[in-house]
Design goal:
Order of helices and strands: HHHHHHHHHHHHHHHHHHH
Shape: globular
Radius of gyration: 21 Å
CATH architecture: Up-down Bundle
Largest sheet: none
Number of domains: 1
Number of strands: 0
Distance between the termini: 38 Å
Helix content: over 70%
Strand content: under 5%
Number of helices: 19
């Protein structure tokens, strides 16, 4: 590799732009099935619980393939892995249009989830190689804000596209968009900045000098990570459990919030889409704020606090927002309480993923994948718990108290995690 003079835009900034756009695409593809609930349910003759299963089966596939996806990113590199998984899930986005009964829809959405599973672990592995530790929080915040903005855009825009050209054609168009991103990524990205032909020497030196904490070592040539070491780490168990709690809250807004608001307040599709999209925009703000806060506290030489405090504050806000949403009777008030809840829930993402990169280092893909697997088991249960608890109790209220309780539990879990301890130590 021959380093060149400094470019106008640092290469790591372009990397973050690419992963941000990937995050947008991830959630546009993911949330479009919620937006298409009515035509899909009508065409396939699905009940509420059957449609809930169709949404949850995605989360099951997504959860089960998180750790394998992270392992592949660590072993093969995020260039090939992210290209492959985007092509794979885009194919099954398009094939969703061919579903003609529930069983076909379930298989398609499960495989779609399995494909998306490698995305964020692959991004985490790229983050370790390319992003200095003092920028890690804001980068995670930017990336995850893309997912929230993508979901927010999907609510009204994809809803309008579905109303205009039909849900089947809309899914095919989204498949083609995914193919375009995969082509860009394969030809532009390199697994390590030392391999990029157009990076400036000053930027390269800065990345190599600051991408890992001095006390933790560079760990570029770390030995293979054994299953025993991974599962024997208390850090992995604690961070995975708290992420379960985070996703239990967020996945409700990604799946059931739109039909819940539409039905409860008798809204049309556009108004329901706008109300349901607003909390996701606040989720983007939560990601940005938490990312900034993580880096601000870290630069004050408070490594452990920089991960713990933003997450603990976020979980408290999420619990308050969920409980507040129970006691209102207008769509605007409900939207505002859910916005507080998602702002808080999304404050937990930047510290969570930064934490995984901290302790995983060159194994960041598999560690973050394991955490995300646990989190999406929470997503899987959310999609089923919301309609099932309502069926059992005759009310949607118990669901929101359960979700609030999980957020309070997560605060306790963050009090015992240690980002400054290796997988072997803790």
């Amino acid at each position: 590799m021959t380093a060149t003079r400094p470019p106008l835009i640092p290469k790591r900034f372009l990397l973050v732009l690419g992963t941000f756009l990937l995050s947008v695409l991830l959630y546009v593809d993911r949330v479009c099935i919620s937006t298409a609930k009515e035509p899909i349910s009508r065409d396939l003759n699905l009940s509420e619980v059957e449609f809930g299963l169709a949404m949850s089966i995605f989360a099951l596939g997504y959860a089960l393939f998180q750790t394998p996806g992270g392992w592949l990113a660590d072993r093969l590199g995020p260039r090939r892995v992210l290209t492959a998984v985007v092509v794979f899930w885009s194919i099954f986005t398009g094939l969703t249009a061919a579903a003609y009964r529930l069983s076909v829809l379930l298989v398609t959405r499960f495989l779609f989830g399995a494909g998306e599973a490698g995305a964020f672990p692959g991004i985490a592995r790229a983050t370790f190689s390319w992003i200095p530790m003092a920028e890690r929080g804001i980068v995670q915040g930017i990336n995850f804000s893309g997912s929230r903005l993508g979901a927010a855009l999907a609510m009204p825009l994809v809803g309008g596209m579905i109303a205009t050209i039909g849900w089947r054609t809309s899914f095919v168009i989204l498949m083609l968009v995914g193919f375009a991103w995969a082509v860009f990524w394969f030809f532009w990205f390199r697994n390590d900045p030392t391999e990029h032909p157009r990076i400036g020497q000053e930027e390269l030196d800065h990345i190599l000098r600051t991408r890992q904490h001095a006390d933790a070592g560079e760990a570029q040539e770390a030995p293979p990570l054994s299953v025993g070491t991974l599962l024997g780490s208390r850090n992995v168990w604690f961070i995975s459990a708290q992420y379960f709690c985070s996703n239990f809250t967020f996945f409700f807004c990604l799946t059931w919030l739109f039909p819940h608001l539409k039905g409860k307040y008798e809204l049309d599709a556009f108004d329901a889409g706008m109300y349901a999209a607003t909390p996701l925009v606040y989720g983007a703000f939560g990601n940005w704020f938490a990312g900034w806060l993580v880096d601000r506290i870290y630069r004050a030489d408070r490594w452990v606090l920089s991960r713990r405090l933003p997450a603990m504050v976020g979980y408290l806000l999420a619990a308050v927002g969920l409980i507040g949403s129970v006691y209102v009777d207008t769509p605007l008030a409900s939207c505002l309480w859910f916005s507080l809840a998602i702002f808080g829930a999304d404050m937990t993402l930047a510290p969570s993923w930064s934490f995984c990169v901290d302790i995983g280092k060159s194994h960041a893909g598999v560690v973050s994948g394991t955490m995300n697997m646990a989190g999406n088991l929470g997503s899987f249960l959310t999609g089923l718990a919301f309609p099932t608890l309502a069926l059992w109790t005759g009310s949607y209220t118990p669901f929101f108290f359960v979700a609030a309780g999980l957020n309070l539990l997560a605060i306790g879990l963050w009090m015992v995690v240690r980002p400054d301890r290796s997988l072997e130590e803790y």
